[in-house]
Amino acid sequence: MAELAYMVREDWAQYGTTMGEQSALIREWPGRPPYVFATADRKKIELDHRGDAQFMTYVAPSADERHVIDLSDLSGLRRSDEQLTAPLVVMHPHEERDCDLLREIVPADSVVKMFAIVWSPRDMVRAWLDGVGALNLHTGSVLEAPDAVQLEAAKCWVGEQYNGLSSGNGKGAVVQLLRAFTDAGYPLDVETWLRAFFAAGGEFEKATNVAKLIKEMREGTRHRIQTRCQADILSVLRERATKYD
User: Fold this and answer.
1) Is 184 exposed, middle or buried (0-12, 13-18, 19+ CB in 10 A)?
2) For 219-237, how does the pLDDT look when each residue is reduced to its tens digit (9 = 90+)?
3) Does the N-terminal peptide bond of residue 34 adopt cis geometry, omega within 30 degrees of 0?
4) Same domain, yes or no, for 194 and 123?
5) Which of 118, 161, 221, 244 has the most neighbouring CB atoms within 10 Å?
6) Whether residues 122 and 152 fall in one domain
7) Residue 113's beta-bridge partner residues?
């Protein structure tokens, strides 16, 4: 899998006081330019001095240090015979289709090194990056891998996501497993569960469904669902986690 790193924009800028210093740190990580900068819409980049264009010119001040493409141009990397060897810098990925594209090409070894600047610490792409072991360049650390038993639960959800997780059997599997884990003392925490879901291969659209259900449960919603899991499901998942440890 590609080497991954990221930084949240507010950590990069820090009210306009550290953009130069943090940009130097970012340049140091992938190595020498040129870099491939991927943006949601390169036609608008010259007008966006506060966003993509500003970040890009700090990281690669010289035009010959950068090659700008649309994020959608990376779709060719889904093919196993394609690989991007130059360092990839993804600027503020947000749309589900763009984030799912990254989710698909990164494990396929289609990219060697990828850095992402994340617009907000609450953006779902950050949960994905943390879930797949990306380095946070601001802190210099990688978050601990998801709990092994939670990861097994998340794999169950991934197995249901072809039918959706917002209703029917998929929703039932999510809610029942969340109830079992919460009863066992696990925190009903959106970020923790999303990291496990992404580590298991979950899609961004379905991650939105998982996050919504968790938030509703935290607010006291009692969802009506059909039983999807056996009564001792937690023991089963613990046994699986131990088997693959």
Assistant:
1) exposed
2) 988 888 877 777 788 999 9
3) yes
4) no
5) 118
6) no
7) 3
